Amino acid sequence: MIAPMSSASAQDVTVRIIEEPYRDVYAFLGVYFEALGAQRADQGAQTIADAPQLGFGLRLISARESNLQLELGLEYREMDLKELSGPDKATAFDMLIGGRMYPLTPTFALGNLAFRVTLAAHGGFSTGDAFGAAMDFSGGFSISSGTDPNGLVIEVVGRPVEYTIEDLDGVWADVLLRRSWILRAGFQFGP
């Protein structure tokens, strides 16, 4: 049985829909891993031509309406020096600021994969086993799907600054880490 509804029990319901406007992306976060590079290390007459090195890092990239972006980076690297008579390894923690060429539109595409040529230059300082200036140059590709800039970044990184690891206790001779290069692979995330 259905009872009739009185007009006194009826209520008006008001629904208000608020649309959030689109906001442009202002920054990307990048995480990466470095390996397969060549690091030359000299200690007196001893030399390691290709000391193994590994690294990882974080970077924050501005995402303005330009192909040139500001970039901040934190990196940690470790070089294997077991072949020398000094320390077993050398570590470096770099804090860098610089610029990156990151095209807004893909350089070319293969199907749904978009490729962007990317170049960067950074300067800053390094601490760890040696303290001093740090610099790196990189170039490679960013691979993403369609027009979405989030994706995989593969680069070759060159570090032109040499580091000296000093033995403050006088147990072993100083180690000179020469210019190096390394391969970098990572992911870039945006909001």
Describe the structure.
The protein has 191 residues and is mainly beta. The chain has one domain (27-189): Porin (Beta Barrel). Helix content is 0%, strand content 62%. It contains no helices and eleven strands. Strands 1-3-4-5-7-8-9-11 form an eight-stranded antiparallel β-barrel. The termini are far apart. The mean pLDDT is 87.
Summarize the structure in short.
This protein is mainly beta.
Layout of helices and strands:
Layout: E1 27-43, E2 46-51, E3 53-62, E4 68-80, E5 89-101, E6 108-110, E7 113-128, E8 132-145, E9 151-159, E10 163-165, E11 175-189
Antiparallel strand pairs: 1-2, 1-3, 1-11, 3-4, 4-5, 5-7, 6-7, 7-8, 8-9, 9-11, 10-11
Tell me the distance between the termini: 55 Å
CATH topology: Porin
Number of strand elements: 11
Could you describe the largest sheet, including whether it forms a barrel? 8 strands, antiparallel, barrel
Mean pLDDT across all amino acids: 87
- Major sheet: arrangement of strands: 1-3-4-5-7-8-9-11
Question: What structural category arises from helix and sheet content?
Answer: mainly beta
The domain count comes to 1
Helix content: under 10%
Q: pLDDT under 50 segments (min length 5)?
A: none
The ordered string of helix (H) and strand (E) elements is: EEEEEEEEEEE
Strand content: over 45%
Number of helices, counting only DSSP H or I runs of 4 residues or more: 0
For this structure, what is the CATH class? Mainly Beta
CATH architecture name: Beta Barrel
Radius of gyration using CA atoms only: 26 Å
Morphology call:
elongated
